[in-house]
Prior knowledge:
350 residues, alpha/beta, Rossmann fold
Amino acid sequence: MTFLWPQMLWLLAAVPILAGGYVLLLRRRKKFAVRYSDLAMVRTALGTGQRLRRHLPPLLFLMAIAIALFGIARPTAVVTLPSEQRQIILAIDVSLSMRAADVQPTRIAAAQAAAKAFVQEQPADVRIGVVSFAGTAALVQSPTRDREDLIAAIDRFELQRHTAIGSGIIVALATLFPDEQIEVESVGFGAFSSDRGRSKSLDQPSKEPKKPAKVVPPGSYQNGAIILLTDGRRTMGPDPIKAARMAADHGVRIYTVGFGTAGGAHADVDGMSIFMRFDEEALKAIADVTQGQYFHAGSADDLRKVYEMLNARFVLEKKETEITALLTALASVLLIGAATLSLLWTSRLA
């Protein structure tokens, strides 16, 4: 626990002072009690229940004061809260190398199965979009809560030549911020396709005025995130690190997944066996720039576990939160309890 105003903690010194004042008041009243000829009778009259009624309201009052003074220092604590990231874009590599069988049955089949499981496990209010990328990037499913549409879009993946990781990042970012009309040509080149077959070229500048983007701290955007999966390295398109910096300027985190065996594998491309290996350093850099996280999935089971981990991260997240309001509410309840008991038992507030 930390404090935004730690200098205010000195006010807690009032608590022992109030406790000491209460003890002095009790001693003063005790002096008047010795005037009775039979002290045993007085103690019997008071009894355990009477002593509880006498001391409980002041104790509750003292606790309320202590909690309220503690709250003035504005304490913060790491608590687990429902995540505010309610829109997730899956950017998945569909280059020809994804047909490699080092991950059974194939890389693309394993990736599709894990992505569909991830989609089905998300809360109903989370909107998910799907971007595929190879030589170009396309939005194959705009963000939606309809899980059937998402699964159908994932099943429609078609493998293509080349790997344009940067294009995949930019199209995913453009999906999160449609009003800004982000274009791939701002960093490189590519094409943007909608899930209904309509396409919008990002090579040509838009005639409509763009909404100016405000640069924010990396990782500060809490309403969405990008999960990027690839099994290869950039062969064309925009620089993925520059694309990641663009995402960082929007505060969007990118969680990168390097898929396939660590040593790489051969894939059949147009009858030729080509050795493919993902660029782990680039994927780590993309995640670092955006305050995201990098994962390596060397098998279908590894990939499933990565998606399960990400699912838990998006549903519940640990966040440092100011708890002053909670302490204030608790102090108010104790004050009301002290006042109520005092009125019920003694017909007065003191």
